[in-house]
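Hypothesis: this fold can be encoded by more than one sequence.
Test: take the structure tokens below, design a sequence, compare later.
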């Protein structure tokens, strides 16, 4: 199933706790998208070579594709 939202599109959130926020799509899956700077979640990370300190990292969480709307290129 093809989606109307692609990686790199600028979108606005139209439903949910983050309604009204805007950002660029980082990852677009079949039914969920990850938008830059929206729905930040905290994740506990174990120590590793990539992250020697470990600890709590903040990253974007997924949003259902039905809750986002593409902003036309001329509008932003």
């Amino acid at each position: 199933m093809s989606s109307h939202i692609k990686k790199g599109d600028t979108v606005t959130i139209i439903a949910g706790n983050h309604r009204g926020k805007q950002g660029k799509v980082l990852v677009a899956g079949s039914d969920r998208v990850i938008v830059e700077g929206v729905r930040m979640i905290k994740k506990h990370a174990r120590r590793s070579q990539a992250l020697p300190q470990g600890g709590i990292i903040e990253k974007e969480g997924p949003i259902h594709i039905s809750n986002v709307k593409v902003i036309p290129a001329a509008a932003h």
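The mean pLDDT is 93. The radius of gyration is 14 Å.
Hypothesis status: open.
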